[in-house]
Amino acid sequence: MEVSSSNGVSDAKDTTAAGPGSDTSNTATSNSASEDPLIQYVVLRRDLIDTWPLGSVVTQGCHASVAAICSYKDDPDTLHYCYS
């Protein structure tokens, strides 16, 4: 999780990516060194921080991230992202 702050308000985005060429024992396809890594960004609305506690805003972003992964749980790219 990467958190940056320019004026005391945090923006959070997930920049975790699986490394290319990782060995896996599942059915996911393996990325070659020439392919771009798969990255998931979580964008949080800054205007919600004025009315919601920061932890609640970040929690909603985490829930959205997990929901996106669950929606595509059988996709080969998602399997590689999660298990490599």
UniProtKB/TrEMBL annotation:
Keyword Hydrolase: yes
Segments of skewed composition (Low complexity): 24-33
Reactions this protein catalyses: an N-acyl-L-alpha-aminoacyl-tRNA + H2O = an N-acyl-L-amino acid + a tRNA + H(+)
Keyword annotations of the record: Hydrolase
A molecular function GO annotation: peptidyl-tRNA hydrolase activity
InterPro entries xrefs: Pep_tRNA_hydro_II_dom_sf, PTH2, PTRHD1
The keyword Hydrolase appears for this protein: yes
Alphabetized Pfam families for the sequence: PTH2
SUPFAM superfamilies hit by this protein: Peptidyl-tRNA hydrolase II
Region spans: Disordered: 1-33
E.C. designation(s): 3.1.1.29
Protein name, entry field: peptidyl-tRNA hydrolase
